[in-house]
Amino acid sequence: MILLDWLNQDMKLAMKSKNKLELSVIRMVKASIQNEQIKLGHDLSEEDSLTVLNRELKQRKDSLHEFEQAGREDLAIRQREEIAILHKYLPEQLTEEEVRQIVTETIAETGASQKSDMGKVMGAIMPKVKGKADGSVINRLVLESLS
């Protein structure tokens, strides 16, 4: 199912069930997707929509980290709930072993051998795992492999 259709369908269900948090998160994601469409001047592909969804997820994870450091558990709880809602719309995530294998293959393809080649490796990996793996996990595994 196309992400925007899925969001519209779930938004209606959230309205009917009076789930304010889910409704709020879905509206924010839809607004971000629509803003991106306006910015680019054309409808987004499914991959572009996933990019926007991942951006929203990353923003919430960053906020969660900041709230936890500041000791604001009340705000951290809300961020965790929003993250859980957003995860529902992401494709099935790769396991760390699967990501490690992709990293190894990509390093071999690019001929990378040192940490200075990290940008080249990351640039080749990210399109392969778009939306299916967390960038921080990929970054850590690439660093481990290039060390």
UniProtKB/TrEMBL annotation:
Q: Which InterPro entries does the UniProt entry name for this protein?
A: Asn/Gln_tRNA_amidoTrase-B-like (IPR003789), GatB_Yqey_C_2 (IPR023168), YqeY/Aim41 (IPR019004), YqeY/Aim41_N (IPR042184)
User: Coiled-coil intervals in this record?
Assistant: none
Lineage, top-rank taxon, reads: Bacteria
What's the protein called, per UniProt?
GatB/YqeY domain-containing protein
Naturally occurring in which organism (per UniProt): Alkalicoccobacillus plakortidis
